[in-house]
Task: structure prediction
Amino acid sequence: AQSVTQPDIHITVSEGASLELRCNYSYGATPYLFWYVQSPGQGLQLLLKYFSGDTLVQGIKGFEAEFKRSQSSFNLRKPSVHWSDAAEYFCAVGAGGGNKLTFGTGTQLKVEL
Amino acid sequence: GAVVSQHPSRVICKSGTSVKIECRSLDFQATTMFWYRQFPKQSLMLMATSNEGSKATYEQGVEKDKFLINHASLTLSTLTVTSAHPEDSSFYICSAEPTGVNEQFFGPGTRLTVL
Result:
């Protein structure tokens, strides 16, 4: 069974500081990996995705993530956080092709000015 | 491109009534749509996978007679919460996967409050 672990429930960073959100997955084959962001009361916006190829993936809003198969990880990074990045971040794993996504429990990001 | 809409965005209903939520893919066709439920400050939990023209596949623990899903066309799926109770109050989010694309696009969600 596929699963996703986001170890950090809450993270607080200062504006301008770097950010890393952790994501570990469990999946039997090559996974399709996603990072989504959700603002309060809103739907999900895709930040980036990994299917295959280059293990460092660039996304929107200056985010990037690195797929590390040996560590079963897909951590999200941003070199300089903006106050508008405060939101809930979800990592998800799936198989594509009409198959379901499994989400992690999410990490709530707070940005201090 | 790849926009998914949900209607209504918010709904308040009395206990015992039924509520229908629509999920539409506006600019693409989706053989598969998904319905998720999200409780406050929690993650998304998949309720069911909806395939056009066939019966939905429900996740374990989800009552298919309570949460009726219809996927009548390649651009529309509906979720009907029957005989709603206060514990059904939640944020319901749908997603749609374009045919041949291994990515789901999410709707903005529907906030259901059952009084």
